[in-house]
Specification:
Elements lengths: L8 E2 L11 E5 L6 E5 L2 E7 L9 E4 L5 E6 L5 E6 L3 E6 L5 E7 L4 E6 L5 E6 L4 E5 L5 E5 L6 E6 L5 E6 L4 E5 L5 E5 L17 E2 L5 E5 L5 E5 L5 E5 L7 E6 L5 E6 L3 E6 L4 E7 L4 E6 L5 E6 L3 E6 L29 H4 L24 H6 L7 H8 L8 H25 L20 E5 L3 E7 L4 E7 L11 E3 L5 E4 L3 E6 L8 E7 L9 E5 L4 E7 L2 E6 L3 E6 L4 E6 L4 E7 L2 E9 L8 E8 L4 E8 L7 E6 L5 E5 L3 E6 L5 E7 L8 E8 L3 E8 L13 E5 L12 H26 L5 H27 L3 H8 L5 H13 L3 H30 L6 H9 L28 H10 L22 E3 L8 E3 L24 H5 L6
């Protein structure tokens, strides 16, 4: 039998390192997983679709939570604790409702009845309390156990309650009378005082059998009415079973034992059909209400989902769930409360058999077996006489049953169509709340903001990575309970959601320095709450639950309020730009998120970019921000980094995939990136975010495209080629923007020249690989991309040395055609422009009007690919320079001449050795040079200029 590995994530941490009893359960629609631990006072509500996202945490108990229970309609959550209290919450919101009861000793187990109107609670105290959830009253206390009660279960037919104590005694109670029908002593293991693993009882979904852990490492089935032993499930458990769970249709059962195994059983065949081994004992399990999955949690507080727990070749565990609404033991179908009333949403119907409600309760199956039809009590006879005697009782029940089924089908279709989970809003660089621990409100490339909770307030600190640059900011006492923040060089902004009905969401800005006192300001919001905040140059932004984008000035002036098209996901600021991500539409049935991004320029009040934001299928957005160069970047839960560029009319380029570089036990938590590196914190699984202490260590990852495996075997070179093209495209665009405003571009000219050199080196290596791999067509395409004449000469010599004369001839033809075309273009431009323009503007016009002469500044943004027809970049060296110099002798108005004498001549030759295999490319010394020069290095001012435009600028020196 194949053993599969299940990844467990930490939900609750045991401070003492010892095991504790942990609980796990699903809600009705399988949209939430709830976990708790007897060593942790918090309750976590997880999103099963986004397991790595931060859970919603409920902190209302003072001590560990020992038990959880959800009402059947998943609208009410109950929790029991070591602090002796039982609390109720709204679900899934988690709003605390009431302390419904208290005990004098710790609680161990809770359970709702079928309608949710009754809650059974028990523990170390004597007696089981049956609590009416409508008014909180104690309906009855059942006494009979002599030890701690660790297992409870309401009969699905609302007639019995089964309980099990730590001594191994099972008692079956009749709810209508409150008396013990059966007492089975010592049939389960004696757990003593070890409450990290507790005995459990569980009714089958059809209510016909009661499952109890046996004394022989097995599960024993007992008859519903007679409590007789029916059969047992015994397999490969080598230690006692500590938890069991029926599948929703009752066909399968999952059992966990002290041997750290979980077995899946086919109950009808009484055989185990699959199993899983874990590192720690699994102390609680829950079948997914829809689909084929089992949620588990171990004694160390780690939980996970076992997908396809039942082999796909077998019947699904949710197929054919029994319908108990109109089923009775003697074949007569009676109306009970659930049939007569409309489907209950609030869980207000009571099916407890109290004396005052006895007439409304269905007759128990046990009594019906002993009675004839004439012996049915008077109330039931009256009910039967209301129907025509020749009419079958089955027909109205069947019609009503069909009506309920239709409503359920409609509800299921609605759930299927709209049940896909929308990603909740998150703040980039913010980590989830952890009880008693400091966490990050913000962590970016500049610094971090941390907070830790105390009694009624929090302590906030701001630190900069470079202590020499950032100001020293004093710590702050937070009485608002801020949960999100943003940070830049000028200040910080904080916000908190609403807490309760009377508390309002607050936004606060703190500048680091100001000429005026009391420069800090805050805003309060009624009927809405802040979801995310962002910070830029002289502005603050907040997006609220009403889909309002609120923009404030640095001084607190409310500048604008915009309505967004959908619920916000996240937002981030950089300089004058604000980028916001929203939901474009409901997520797809595959749970793929449909997101949209918008970039606003706050200074000018414009929207520069808008479009769809891609994420990897099946993932969600986990980080959003700007690079150091101002490019929008995203990182999703599948580990793919994307950067937005202007190429192809505006596209997202995947520049990094963590699945190719990380180890299986690692997760990447992104902080930021620059042009070449990704900055992230490597977290050990199952952690997906770093702790404040110890201080996170930033790791630098190389950016790389997710390229296909090339037949050339030069993936690294191809990746370098695309990256260099991308960087050169960005530099060229910046040069164009600066030229349009008349700014000096000298520094960028040098940077573009260096990038051209690097690109030529990469292309030359690719040409060599193509020659060795007999990819001659691809080599010809690459030669057309070379920027420098001497690079093409080197390629020609390379082809000759490898004894590829036809290829060398093609390279030579390409060189001659380009030199001829560039000579004609340069001559035509200088004759038509320099002869008529005598102003200083001629310099700018040359650069602006003839981009083909700028070999280092090719402004075309498209990244060339081997499948495209690749353009031939012009040369900047010997051939082009001579042509331009000759044409430049023509005089312009006012006696000015174009001084082109400073364009040097390339004197380096490329010698290629070891024909047949490229070993090395050497540059020979020429003239009186004392050392070899790089053929791609920028020449010094004494020999030649790097750019044609540097020479042309000197025509107006005087």
């Amino acid at each position: 039998m194949k053993i599969r590995s299940i990844k467990l994530r930490e939900a609750h941490k045991n401070s003492n390192g010892a095991g504790s009893f942990c609980s796990i359960l699903w809600d009705l629609q399988a949209q939430h997983i709830v976990t708790s631990s007897s060593s942790d006072p918090s309750i976590c509500i997880h999103d099963p679709l986004l397991l790595s996202s931060a859970p919603r945490i409920l902190r209302n108990h003072r001590d560990g939570v020992t038990s959880l229970a959800l009402s059947p309609n998943s609208t009410c959550l109950a929790s029991g604790s070591v602090d002796h209290s039982v609390k109720l919450y709204k679900f899934p919101g988690g709003e605390f409702q009431t302390n419904i009861t208290r005990f004098t000793l710790p609680i161990r187990v809770l359970g709702f009845n079928k309608s949710g109107s009754m809650l059974a609670a028990a523990g170390d105290d004597e007696g089981i309390k049956l609590i009416n959830t409508i008014d909180g009253s104690i309906a009855r206390v059942l006494k009979g156990h002599r030890g701690s009660v660790t297992g409870l279960g309401f009969d699905p037919k609302s007639e019995y309650l089964a309980s099990l104590d730590s001594a191994g005694t099972v008692i079956v109670w009749e709810l209508q009378s409150g008396r013990a029908l059966h007492t089975l002593k010592g049939i389960a293991p004696d757990t003593g005082l070890d409450f990290s693993l507790m005995n459990i009882v569980c009714w089958s979904p059809d209510g016909e059998m009661l499952a109890v852990p046996g004394l022989k490492n097995d599960v024993v089935m007992y008859d519903r009415d007679t409590a007789e032993k029916l059969f047992s499930l015994r397999g490969d458990h080598v230690q006692r079973i500590c938890f069991l769970s029926w599948s929703p249709n009752g066909k399968y059962m999952a059992t966990s034992g002290l041997d750290r195994q979980v077995l899946i059983w086919d109950v009808d065949q009484r055989l185990d059909i699959d199993r899983q081994k874990f590192d720690d004992v699994i102390c609680c399990m829950a079948w997914k209400p829809t689909g084929n999955a089992l949620a588990v949690i171990d004694a160390m507080g780690k939980y996970g989902i076992w997908d396809s727990a039942v082999p796909s070749s077998m019947k699904s565990p949710t197929e054919g769930i029994p319908d108990l609404q109109s089923k009775n033991s003697n074949g007569l179908l009676f109306f009970d409360e659930e049939e007569v009333e409309e489907p209950n949403i609030s869980g207000s119907l009571s099916d407890l058999g109290e004396d005052s409600h006895g007439e409304s309760q269905p007759t128990s199956r046990k009594r019906l077996r002993k009675q004839s039809f004439s012996d049915v009590d008077e109330g039931t006879s009256d009910e039967l006489s209301l129907l025509p005697k020749d009419a079958s009782r089955k027909r109205p029940s069947h019609n009503h049953k069909e009506g309920i089924k239709k409503r359920k089908d409609v509800q299921m279709r609605t759930t299927t169509s709209v049940g896909s989970k929308l990603q909740e809003a998150f703040q980039p660089g913010c980590t989830p709340t952890q009880s008693g621990k400091r966490r990050f409100l913000c962590y970016n490339m500049l610094g971090s903001i941390t907070t830790i909770e105390h009694d009624g307030y929090s302590h906030i600190e701001i630190d900069f990575h470079d202590t020499g640059r950032g100001p020293r900011v004093p710590a702050m006492t937070d009485y608002f309970g801020f949960t999100m923040a943003a940070l830049n060089e000028n200040g910080s902004v904080f916000a908190n959601p609403c807490k309760g009905e009377k508390s309002m969401s607050t936004l606060m800005y703190r500048p680091f320095s100001s000429w005026a006192n009391n420069s800090e300001w805050s805003m309060r919001f009624e009927d809405e709450e802040v979801k995310v905040v962002a910070l830029g140059t002289a502005w603050v932004a907040a997006v609220t639950s009403l889909n309002f984008l609120r923009i404030f000035t640095e001084g607190g002036l409310q500048r604008n309020v915009l309505s967004l098209d959908g619920p916000v996901v996240t937002a981030v600021g950089f300089g004058d730009e604000l980028a916001v991500v929203t939901h474009a539409s409901p997520s797809l049935p595959s749970n793929d998120q449909m997101l949209e991004f918008r970039v606003f320029n706050i200074r000018h009040g414009t929207q520069s970019i808008r479009g769809r934001l891609p994420v990897t299928p099946g993932s969600y957005l986990s980080w959003f921000g700007f690079s150091e160069e101002g490019k929008i970047c995203t990182f999703d839960s599948k580990g793919v980094l994307r950067v937005f560029t202007d190429q192809y009319g505006g596209s997202w380029l995947p520049l990094f995939s963590s699945t190719k570089v990380r180890k299986p036990e690692e997760n990447h938590w992104v902080v930021g990136l620059n042009a070449n590196k990704l900055f992230c914190v490597v977290c050990k699984s199952p952690d997906t975010f770093p702790q404040v202490i110890p201080k996170p260590v930033l790791n630098l990852m190389d950016l790389s495209f997710p390229l296909a495996s090339s037949d050339l075997g030069a993936d690294n070179l191809e990746n370098e080629f695309i990256l260099h093209n991308l960087h050169l495209s960005q530099i060229n665009k910046t040069i164009e923007e600066m030229m349009s405003t008349g700014q000096d571009t000298t520094s960028l000219d040098d940077e573009a020249f260096k990038m051209d050199c690097s690109l030529d080196k990469c292309i030359f290596k690719l040409i060599a690989s193509c020659c060795n791999g007999d990819k001659l067509v691809r080599a010809t395409e690459l030669v057309k991309l070379l920027s420098f004449e001497k690079s093409v000469k080197g390629a020609i010599e390379l082809a000759k040395s490898l004894k590829l004369p036809n290829l060398a001839e093609r390279f030579t033809t390409i060189q001659e055609e380009r030199l001829l075309n560039e000579s004609k273009a340069a001559t035509a431009f200088l004759v038509t422009n320099l002869g008529s323009d005598t102003s200083d503007k001629s310099d700018f016009m040359i650069r602006k009007s003839i981009p083909p002469l700028e070999s280092s500044y090719d402004s075309k943004p498209a990244i060339p690919s081997p499948s495209q027809k690749l353009p031939s970049p012009p040369f900047m060296k010997k051939g082009l320079s001579e042509a331009v110099a000759k044409a430049g002798k023509a005089k312009v108005k006012q006696g000015q001449t174009a001084n082109l004498e400073n364009i040097g001549e390339v004197k380096n030759d490329v010698q290629l050795k070891n024909a047949g295999e490229v070993k090395n490319v050497e540059v020979k010394k020429t003239g009186e040079e004392s050392e070899a020069k790089n053929p791609f290095a920028k020449s010094s001012n004494k020999q030649e200029k790097s750019s044609l435009f540097d020479s042309l600028k000197k025509k107006n020196v005087k």
